[in-house]
């Protein structure tokens, strides 16, 4: 069996070479640190303990006791975090259109007002039948998004529809490099959220799914491979620490579960 130190190399290697020079390791580490720190903003409630909001503050404090720490994300918080991460990483990729990237980041999940949040994991816990890895489910998701797009456009003024249609169609299909970059950041942010929220307490099934699904980011925009590697390395390390096992043992186990998938991506 392959030795575990090559796990990250196996996941990241074999991709299309990035169109842009990769940022330095120190820059990528600083970026990932900033992305992680930004989750703290989700702990800061607006209106909390203000005199006209005391009843609501009492209920919010109760919910904090029920679900301490980082909460399950709502789509608005996720979208802000994607935009924040995209703004941070944009200077590494000078050929990308800044305005389009930020507009896509803000809007990319807005159609979930109508569709709800799509579950990528699915009933088997592996994404086998969901849009994560199932072509039929992917097409169903696109059809739902197209219908939601028409409903959404009817809810905004006519003069704004053309620009938003263009952006949201790009968000659905990933036709531009800006959209592929945002989709890639979306996967990176989700992996960082798993790292922060789970704090190492995650099942093998969830960890393997998270790796398989998030590494789509590398196909979408290989330029973020340094950032992706750092987040994934921290996630795997946190699991090893939580389980009180060696990194070698965990990596070897994960490689055994991911080996076929990794070979297919080579």
Describe this structure in words.
The protein is an all-alpha fold and 266 residues long. Helix content is 65%, strand content 0%. The chain has 13 helices and no strands. The protein has helices spanning 7-12, 25-37, 54-66, 75-89, 98-107, 112-115, 135-154, 158-173, 177-198, 204-214, 216-220, 225-243, 247-265. The longest helix has 22 residues, at 177-198. It is globular and about 55 Å long.
Layout of helices and strands:
Elements: H1 7-12, H2 25-37, H3 54-66, H4 75-89, H5 98-107, H6 112-115, H7 135-154, H8 158-173, H9 177-198, H10 204-214, H11 216-220, H12 225-243, H13 247-265
Helix pairs in contact: 2-12, 4-5, 4-9, 5-8, 5-9, 7-8, 9-10, 9-12, 12-13
Number of helices: 13
Taking pLDDT < 50 over at least 5 consecutive residues as the criterion, the unreliable ranges are 1-5
> How does the major sheet shape up?
none
| Helix and strand element order | HHHHHHHHHHHHH
Structural class: mainly alpha
In round numbers, the mean pLDDT is 92
What percent of the residues sit in helical stretches (DSSP H or I)?
55-70%
Distance between the termini: 17 Å
Shape: globular
Total DSSP E strands:
0
Rg over alpha carbons: 20 Å
What is the strand content? under 5%
Task: Identify the notable features of this structure and list them briefly.
266 residues; 13 helices; mainly alpha
Summarize the structure.
The chain is an all-alpha fold and 266 residues long. It has 13 helices and no strands. The longest helix is centred in the last third of the chain and has 22 residues, at 177-198.
